[in-house]
Amino acid sequence: MNAWSYIPRVADGELSRRLAANGAVVIEGPKACGKTETARQRAASEVLLDIDTSAREAAGIDPGLVLPGSVPRLIDEWQVVDTMWNRVRREVDARKAVGQFILTGSSVPADDQTRHGGGMRIGRVRMRPLTLSEAGRSTGEISLAAILEGAASAASDPGLTLEDLVAEVVMGGWPGNRQLSLTDAAQAVRDYLDQIRRTDIHMVDGVRRDPQRVAAVMRSLARNIATQASLTTIAADTAGTDATVNYETVGSYLGALERLLIIENSAAWNTHMRSSHQLRTTPTRYFTDPSLAVAALQASPGTLLADLSFFGLLFESLVVRDLRVYSQPLAGAVFHYRDNSNLEVDAIVDCGEKWAAFEIKLGVSQVDHAAANLLKFASRVDTSRRGEPGILAVIVGSGYGYVRDDGVHVIPIGALAP
Predict the structure, then answer these.
(1) Residue 407 banded pLDDT, cuts 50, 70, 90
(2) DSSP run (H or E) holding 404
(3) Distances (CA, A) of 171 to 20, 78, 245, 275
(4) Phi-psi region of 32 (alpha: psi -120 to 50; beta: other; left: phi over 0)
(5) Cα→Cα distances 276→47, 341, 381, 398, Å
(6) pLDDT at 277 over 70
(7) 290: which of 76, 166, 296, 321 is 20 to 30 A away, CA to CA?
(8) For position 115, what pLDDT does the model report?
(9) 126 in Cβ contact with 29 (< 8 Å)
(10) Angstrom distance (rounded) from CA 213 to CA 385
(11) Cα distance between residue 218 and residue 225, in whole Å
(12) Which segments within 66-143 are labelled E, that is strand?
């Protein structure tokens, strides 16, 4: 692959389907995840508002000035012009045709920018960093869509070593990092976070925040990755000797980071349960990509290999990222489950009529315990009202893919694909 090769994405198909049904499609995702290049695969013309100063100034005066062009027309970083959304919406109404515009944005705008909505006019596609499948690091022998429909998991050992997985976590799913050495890729992610704390977090809502405190919040989030840490816990971890940091302040910082799409938590799965155990509703906290947690802590491959307990949480973060991407074309979302008896399931993929439960374990030695946990969880679900799970599965870092005698699937992450 040369430095300019486009890496096909799961979102390619989603974009095509949305363009066929909507006048415009907005692609949302963190900076550097590949939104613009994906949009360019379908766009016939483009205007880049973040780097084209003259176009941005013209659009600030009248957004309609940048809309003419061959369609679909790409409007990159549309949210830098406050009135762009409503102008595109009106243009779609006027043209009465699908596939007119592709809008890309690396932050979620304030509510008033989209308060008029885009229902039946503007579709949405969420993009995330590269999955292992998209990056060419999965054999693709086990399809999430297929096993949800009843296919058996069966795969040879994809051959990913612990060192390989560490490298993937450190490098992250950023397309621009695939051509870099691991050392340079790690530095690129650290620079990415530095840009966020110094500049981007202010631009998202105009609020001035102390860059050092932003970095402290991100370090705390990294230390609490893949846990249900409360705002109070993160505030205490962030404050140190600074008593002025409270949970409300932390909530504001995390909210801004979520709008920049570099944080994506897993909400609690709420469904009908036979058990009287009450659901705990604190979200499980993740960065959009595990490399951001590594960068926030200034960690290295060596320090991660020396702390496999922590690396197991980063591995969980990587798997959840991939499950989100693979399930999105199925109209799926990823949740977690934990009740007041501390029964916990790492990931629930809910696609409406179909759902599946996954435990995520780095080592194959943990499969027996994880499988027992899944079976215990499944016994508490009121399947008469929710339906049987498509599958129960343990996703592991290495080894073979197969179905156990108890019906639980074992899936190496290096074999999983959409």
Answers:
(1) very high
(2) none
(3) 35, 28, 32, 42
(4) left
(5) 56, 10, 11, 36
(6) no
(7) 76
(8) 46
(9) yes
(10) 46
(11) 10
(12) 73-76, 101-105, 122-126, 142-143
Q: What distance in Å separates the CA atoms of residue 43 and residue 41, rounded to the nearest whole number? A: 6
Choose from 88-92, 107-111, 207-211 the range with maximum mean pLDDT: 88-92
How far is residue 102 CA from its own chain's centroid? 20
Sequence-distant (≥ 6) Cβ neighbours of residue 239 within 8 angstroms: 245, 246
Query: Which are the contacts of 320, defined by CB distance < 8 A and separation ≥ 6?
Result: 226, 266, 286, 334, 346, 347, 360
92 phi/psi in degrees, rounded to 5 = -60, -40
DSSP of 244-278: T--HHHHHHHHHHHHHTTSB-PBPBP---BSS-PP
Q: Dihedral through CA 139, CA 2, CA 292, CA 288, nearest 10? A: -60
Whether 8 has a pLDDT exceeding 60, the answer reads yes
Does 383 have pLDDT greater than 90? no
* Percent of the chain at pLDDT exceeding 90: 81
Q: What is the pLDDT of residue 228?
A: 95
Give me 410's structure tokens.
């074992």
Nearest one of 404, 396, 407 to 365, comparing CA atoms: 396
E-state strands within 88-227: 101-105, 122-126, 142-143
Cα 26 to Cα 125: distance, rounded to the nearest angstrom: 6
Give the chain's length: 418
Mean pLDDT of 109-137: 80
The answer to whether 214 and 274 have CB atoms below 8 angstroms apart is no
Residue 4 confidence (pLDDT): 65
Identify the residue whose tokens are 């929710």: 386
Tell me what pLDDT residue 1 has: 42
The first and second tokens of residue 272, run together, are: 């009908």
pLDDT value, residue 205: 82
Tokens of 250: 């932390």
- Residue for token digits 């946990």? 373
* pLDDT mean across residues, the chain: 93
- What is the Cα–Cα distance from 179 to 332, expressed in whole angstroms? 31
